[in-house]
Structures are given as structure tokens and as C-alpha cells.
Amino acid sequence: MPTIVYEDQKISCEKGENLRAVLLKNGIYPHNGASRYVNCFGIGSCGTCAVHIEGQVNEMCTQERIRLSLAPHNPENGLRLSCQVTVQDDIKVKKYAGFWGQEVNHAASSSSKTKR
Ligand code: FES
User: Fold this and answer.
1) Which of 50, 51, 86, 113 is most buried, most CB within 10 Å of its CB?
2) Phi/psi of residue 62, each to 5°?
3) Ligand 1 probe mutation, 38, 39, 66, 70, most atoms within 8 A of CB
4) Cis peptide, bond prior to residue 75, ω within 30 of zero
């Protein structure tokens, strides 16, 4: 069973489970602020469930690629839409700030990796 590390929490799930569904089932919202209530409920159109993932998940589908290419997202940020992700192995998930979780700070990310 894959393990999902989200912030300081660890969750187990079945291989192939939908990441957003697993998080919600465990009381974790991959949405910031009001986007918890104002979102597309997992059809991949709003972009508010974006997260950064380390580890093996499914390939990005066309719907996800298109949404992440639209503002305020930037494909260079390397985010994924948790509602379009299936967990394939142990993963580490990080949610960034901003309504869409789009405020990726690469400088802070790389410095925190350096400290570990
Ligand atoms: S919940 Fe809307 S894109 Fe994932």
C-alpha cells in the first residue's frame, strides 16, 4: 500500500486511488481558503487542487495539462491537479499558497531541500 505524506501527516491508500479523494476521505483539503467550497469537485477544470508531488503517480492527461497551462498556473511550476492524479507508490505532497495553490517559491523550495 502506498503511503502519502502530506505536510506532517501520513496516509495509506490503495495503488491507483485518486489523490484528491484519498485526501478528502482523510479530512485533508488540497484546497486553500474559499476554494475548499468553490471548486469543480474534481473534474479538472478549476485548478484549485494543485499540489507539488514527489514520487510516482500517473502521467498527466490532456485535461490536466491544459488547465495547468492557464493562469494563474504556470507549467514551469511542476504542479499537478490532485483530482487528476492516481497514486502509484509512496509520494510526498506539498500544497503551496494562493487560491489555486499556485504560489510556488522555487528559491524557498530549493533552500529547504539543501537544509535536509
Ligand atoms: S478540484 Fe478542480 S481541478 Fe481539481
Assistant:
1) 50
2) -60, -45
3) 39
4) no
Torsions phi, psi for 75 (to 5 deg): -55, -20
pLDDT score of 105? 80
CA distances from 1 to 13, 14, 33 (A): 6, 5, 31
Look-up of cell digits 483539503: 29
**What does DSSP say about strands 50-57 and 80-81: parallel, antiparallel, or unpaired?**
antiparallel
Q: Could you tell me the domains of the chain?
A: 3-104 (3.10.20.30)
Edge-first strand order for the sheet with 50-57 is: 9-12, 3-6, 87-94, 50-57, 80-81
- Report pLDDT digits (tens) over 75-95: 999 999 999 999 999 999 999
* Ligand 1 probe mutation, 83, 85, 86, 99, most atoms within 8 A of CB: 83
pTM (two decimals)? 0.90
